[in-house]
RNA sequence: GUCCCCAUCGUCUAGUGGUCAGGACGCCAGCCUUUCAAGCUGGUAACGCGGGUUCGAUUCCCGCUGGGGACGCCA
């Protein structure tokens, strides 16, 4: 039997990283098995579902390259089919009408809680004769759960899990307005879509027992379940807004690369021995949902950043240029053709020092910002009067330098420092300040090569004449 | 409260009835060095507790503790 899986988010918000990991595991399992990976938008709660959220989900999945193999299924469009199933179950006596009002149910629950009894529907309508109820009184349709025995699920991640059927609620299938509930819709859709493996967060584990009984009532095969543990915040609690960014698109804004995010997420609960860096091909080749651990993992930004730094270094310079340019423009920096060329030439040195695209764009300023460059406070302090004269004298040498390459520049600068009776470091930092406006940058001679002679001389001239404005921010 | 799930360094994890309990991130130190990174070297740090089973348990079983989840006419 060919594997068919689905990712089934409800469009009530952005795609968060927990959902992204669920999607990734589904996708990986499908790819590994040569199966199909589908997307279903669970928008049966029309009030809370939004177009924006649906777009955010598509966008997030696209960014992570986890788009489905077929157009998405919108659950709301299938309400008639869901209703039809409920009606059939009703006719077959596997479901029944319940006339309890929401107030009545709330009171029942409150009393149960107060008396420290299990909070559950007491099935008071289960045997009720419809004729004994006024015909116009609204009713819901509930599933008649077995009251004895137990339900056992062989979960690919959780192992064998069982629950006494007495614990199962007679869940609502159709609301009093006739619309289907999530419980009904998921089961009907998963069946109709031919889903063979339901891979989702383990917050659905208890739902699985009830859904199992619904499959049985419908007299259809039950799919294989795999409930993966949720991702927790650094404090161990359920991931929430107070833990910072949740939406995958926020990570994109932060300058995280999709491949870094995927690598990070897949290692949460799944591993391949000691391997930390995994290509998509390796993940697909080795991934098995059965190998996913059962304990929840905590989100660790440092690890994500470290992975991101790695993948940043792996990306081609031209690729990074393409990603950084829009960020520079958004920051109000107009990059001309010369700046573009410099940035591309300097990218190799820049990317080695950045953990995110945001940091990369920030560091890129040294190659694209217009003269005179602003000075950070630390840089400004290095450029005292004596040093400005030294730099001007150095510029005098550089004008006549035969070859403008790293070796020539290095020997010229070192020789000059020696003449001044300075350690090279004493000259290097002020020179760096003059050339970049900061105290942190790629290697000096690399920077000089990337900038080119004219720009280097001009920047030194700026510093010598004290033309650079000050900035508050510092590296 | 009821039910379900979980438990190896701070974090992500590997692992076995007998291991110096391994790797990665972080942190610390050193090397390199014109700064910062990168790289290299070294270091720090864990089997939650109590009972069993066993010649021997981190590993198997039970309990406890701790953590998480579910108990909606939400999904």
Descriptive account of the structure:
There is one protein chain. This protein is mainly α and 475 residues long. It has helices at 17-33, 51-63, 79-91, 102-114, 182-192, 205-218, 248-253, 258-266, 280-286, 301-314, 317-330, 337-351, 357-368, 377-382, 385-399, 406-420, 424-436, 444-451, 453-464; strands at 4-7, 36-41, 73-74, 95-98, 140-143, 150-155, 159-164, 172-174, 197-201, 224-228, 231-232, 297-298. The protein has a three-stranded parallel beta sheet. Strands 4-5-8 form a three-stranded antiparallel beta sheet. Strand 2 (36-41), helix 2 (51-63) and strand 3 form a beta-alpha-beta unit. It is elongated and about 105 Å long. The relative contact order is 0.09. The model has no long low-confidence stretch (mean pLDDT 93). It binds one RNA strand of 75 nucleotides through helix 4, strand 7, helix 5, helix 6 and strand 12.
Q: What's the rounded overall pLDDT mean?
A: 93
Structural class: mainly alpha
Question: How many strands in all?
Answer: 12
The N- and C-terminal alpha carbons lie at a distance of: 58 Å
Beta strand %: 5-15%
Give the strand order, joined by hyphens, for the main sheet.
1-2-3
Q: Tell me the radius of gyration.
A: 32 Å
- What count of helical segments does DSSP give? 19
**Global morphology:** elongated
Ranges with pLDDT <50 over ≥5 residues? none
List keywords for this structure.
475 residues, mainly alpha, 3-stranded parallel sheet, 3-stranded antiparallel sheet, 12 strands, RNA-binding
Chain-wise SSE layout:
Blueprint: E1 4-7, H1 17-33, E2 36-41, H2 51-63, E3 73-74, H3 79-91, E4 95-98, H4 102-114, E5 140-143, E6 150-155, E7 159-164, E8 172-174, H5 182-192, E9 197-201, H6 205-218, E10 224-228, E11 231-232, H7 248-253, H8 258-266, H9 280-286, E12 297-298, H10 301-314, H11 317-330, H12 337-351, H13 357-368, H14 377-382, H15 385-399, H16 406-420, H17 424-436, H18 444-451, H19 453-464
The structure holds one RNA strand of 75 nucleotides.
């Amino acid at each position: 039997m060919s594997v068919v899986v689905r990712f089934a988010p409800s469009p009530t918000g952005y795609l968060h990283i927990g959902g992204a990991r669920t999607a990734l595991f589904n996708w990986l399992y499908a790819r590994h098995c040569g199966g199909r990976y589908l997307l279903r938008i669970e928008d049966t709660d029309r009030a809370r579902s939004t177009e924006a959220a649906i777009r955010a989900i598509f966008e997030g999945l696209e960014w992570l390259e986890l788009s489905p193999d077929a157009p998405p299924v919108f659950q709301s469009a299938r309400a008639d089919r869901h209703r039809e199933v409920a009606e059939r179950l009703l006719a077959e006596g596997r479901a029944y009408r319940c006339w309890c009002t929401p107030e009545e149910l709330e009171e029942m629950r409150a009393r149960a809680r107060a008396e420290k009894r299990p909070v559950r529907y007491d099935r008071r309508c289960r045997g009720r004769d419809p004729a004994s109820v006024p015909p116009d009184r609204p009713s819901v349709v509930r599933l008649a759960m077995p009251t004895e025995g137990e339900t056992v699920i062989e979960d690919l991640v959780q192992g064998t899990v069982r629950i006494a059927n007495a614990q199962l609620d007679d869940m609502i299938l159709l609301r009093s307005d006739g619309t289907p509930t999530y419980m009904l819709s998921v089961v009907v859709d998963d069946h109709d879509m031919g889903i063979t493996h339901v891979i989702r967060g383990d917050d659905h584990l208890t739902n699985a027992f009830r859904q199992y009984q619904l499959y049985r009532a419908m007299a259809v095969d039950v799919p294989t379940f795999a409930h993966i543990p949720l991702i927790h915040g650094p404090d161990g609690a359920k991931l929430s807004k107070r833990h910072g960014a949740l939406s995958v698109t926020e990570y994109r804004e932060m300058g995280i690369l999709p491949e870094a995010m995927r690598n990070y997420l897949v290692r949460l609960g799944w591993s391949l021995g000691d391997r930390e860096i995994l290509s998509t091909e390796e993940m697909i080749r080795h991934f098995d949902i059965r190998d996913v651990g059962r304990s929840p993992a905590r989100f660790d930004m440092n690890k994500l950043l470290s992975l991101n730094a790695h993948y940043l270094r792996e990306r081609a310079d031209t690729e990074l240029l393409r990603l950084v340019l829009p960020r520079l423009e958004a920051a109000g920096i107009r990059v001309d053709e010369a700046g573009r060329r410099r940035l591309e030439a300097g990218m190799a040195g820049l990317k080695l020092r950045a953990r995110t695209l945001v940091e990369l764009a920030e560091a890129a300023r040294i190659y694209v910002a217009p003269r005179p460059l602003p000075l950070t406070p630390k840089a400004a302090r290095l450029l005292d009067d004596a040093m400005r004269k030294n730099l001007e004298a150095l510029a005098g040498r550089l004008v006549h330098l035969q070859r403008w390459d790293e070796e020539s520049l290095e020997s010229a600068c070192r020789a000059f420092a020696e003449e001044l009776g300075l350690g090279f470091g004493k000259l290097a930092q002020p020179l760096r300040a003059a050339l970049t406006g900061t105290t942190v940058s790629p290697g000096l001679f690399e920077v000089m090569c990337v900038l080119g002679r004219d720009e280097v001389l001009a920047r030194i001239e700026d510093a010598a004449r004290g033309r650079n404005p000050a900035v508050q921010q510092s590296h």
